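Shipment paperwork, digital attachment
Item: protein structure file
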Amino acid sequence: MGTFTVGITGGSGSPYALRVIKALLELEHNVIIVSSKAGKRVLEIESDFLLEGSIQNQLSAWKNQLKLSVNSARLTVLEENDYAASIASGSSNSLGMVVVPCSMGSLARIANGISSSLIERAADVMIKEKRKLVLVTREAPLSVIHINNMLKLAEIGVEILPASPGFYHKPKTIDDLINFISSRILDRLGVPNNLVPKWTGPTTEEN
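Attachment content:
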């Protein structure tokens, strides 16, 4: 199967990252995770998930958090300052990358080619190699600066996927809302999934 990179930055929405990573692994893909310092803080605040210490410690924490019942050898964890990592090069075999959540600061740096971390460098690689890059933004309201940065990226093929769940599938739990966005992320990466039933129109009872 394929290899995908998941960047986690300081925007709200860490449950989406957790769901996407677990789904990719369960679908037998390889996953490379890079979390910024702010991203780790958001994971702690929103998901009670603490990442600290060595890479080996963080890898163990991820395995425990995800309750992996699959081959954990397909999971790689990198530090945000590891510029020697494979994903910093165009020769990387990563088929696509998602930054989820993507803060407005990360969005701005990616839009302007500023690689101040491995996440931003890996995103830059996806752009220059014309591979799939999905940025899951979550901010409200949006300033003109935010919108211009999104436009600049969208015009060169980067996918902007706001973390705005729909309600036509009649969600009953927070998990349903998380699955909605996570399924859309996987769709945009070209990964078939069954997190949410595909919309086929309203039922007869609803007409």
